[in-house]
Amino acid sequence: MVRLKIREIAEKKGIRNPYQLMKATGLNYAQCHLYWNSEPRQIGVEAINRLCMALRVTPRQLFEFEPDSDWEPQARK
Questions:
Q1: I want to staple 32 with a disulfide (CB 3.0 to 4.6 A). Which of 2, 15, 21, 70 is the partner?
Q2: DSSP of 10-70, one letter per residue?
Q3: What mean pLDDT do residues 31-47 have?
Q4: Model pLDDT for residues 44-69, shown as the tens digit of each residue
Q5: Does domain 2-64 have CATH number 3.40.1180.10?
């Protein structure tokens, strides 16, 4: 599962809530709320760029990956 680490990064930079994240990035509040709570279904390249610029991080630092324990790859035919 891919998890966003935006909240923990932002809090280290003094951003304490989705509203402050919105002000720092220029993204809309609904997006920032989802990103803050690591709940988005998808995230666009423009949003990643804005988050990286505002938080002064690389895309690699925004994401954490841990494979699902019940996932098994499907065999290719």
A1: 21
A2: HHHTT--SHHHHHHHH---HHHHHHHHTT--S---HHHHHHHHHHHT--HHHHEEE---TT
A3: 94
A4: 999 999 999 999 999 999 999 988 88
A5: no
